[in-house]
Amino acid sequence: MNILVLPGDGIGPEIVDQAVEIIKILSPDFKLNYGLIGGAAYDAHSDPFPSDTLDKALSADSVLLGAVGDWKYDKLPRDKRPERGLLRIRTALNLFANLRPAILYPQLAEASTLKPEIVSGLDILIVRELTGDIYFGQPRGIEKNNHGEREGINTMRYSESEIRRIGHVAFKMAQLRGKKLCSVDKANVLEATELWREVMTDLSSHYPDVDLSHMYVDNAAMQLIREPKQFDVMVTGNIFGDILSDEASMLTGSIGMLPSASLDENQKGLYEPSHGSAPDIAGKDIANPIATILSVAMMYKYTFNEINKAEKIEKAVGKVLNDGYRTLDIMSKGCKQIGCKQMGELILRNIINE
Ligand code: NAD
Known about the structure:
2 domains
């Protein structure tokens, strides 16, 4: 297997280094290839997603990414900014299914802004459609209307095949977990999501073991705060998923803990932490590498189908937290504060000693 490693910017290289050590131990036969993306790629090639990176990504079995971005690039034209590199790699690899778990290790229940009893043991998976919806629908733009006034236009569009494709992913994920799937839409107001609901309902006949429910997005946003543990897997479109997955991730109170995967139809994936490049703490050895390490666990689970290796990683993370080790972002009273490198080393040691 061939993994493309894209460390990116800010804390990206530090956190990716720790994750790579784990891959080397668990899969010494995997080939690791490195490439540039984001600001690092712009600095070297004046392009945040150079053709060399595209070629490597197309031929890789899987991609591990750190994060992109730095405030120093904010004045560049939009197509040169680091974040554009991320959008381009997602499009180039046709990564239509974004999986974002929101898991709260019981050891970190105090880190959430919600009461510990509401969130302790939380384990939700949000499946977000990533290549359609109002973010890509045409027509779009800013135009003058008949009264000579400027009007901003975006179009929410979903075809049946797009909905079916993400629906299958979500039902299959639910089968692997608690067999409960909540489809989130706004079918009472938006025709695009009325179709979404119809297609999800039709699909459910293929998955009789999964309990499908529907929820309007405004209610879903509320229920995530009121009683988040009622959810197992949630599936939704691009814009609703963007908002709900950020909301769900913050229930856990620790952005440094949350992995993500973006998959194509053949389970090839781009794996990355949910957080950004954190330029404010880059190079100080204080970043939390766990989100990136758990992204590697997702890679084993979804692309390589090696569940035992994924579980080994997850167990090792749990053990290090149980032993009271914390990076600064999840530090609490009575625990031992350690840096990014030491956190990676401790998790690795637990994997080796298991
Ligand atoms: P951010 O996620 O980088 O940081 C938000 C806050 O969380 C900061 O205080 C940061 O120090 C902290 N943080 C983030 N990851 C952490 C970790 N692993 N350990 C400890 N603390 C951590 O978001 P931001 O500050 O809004 O954006 C910074 C840059 O990242 C911007 O250029 C933005 O465009 C980019 N960004 C990239 C991605 C991505 O690569 N997927 C996602 C979001 C933002």
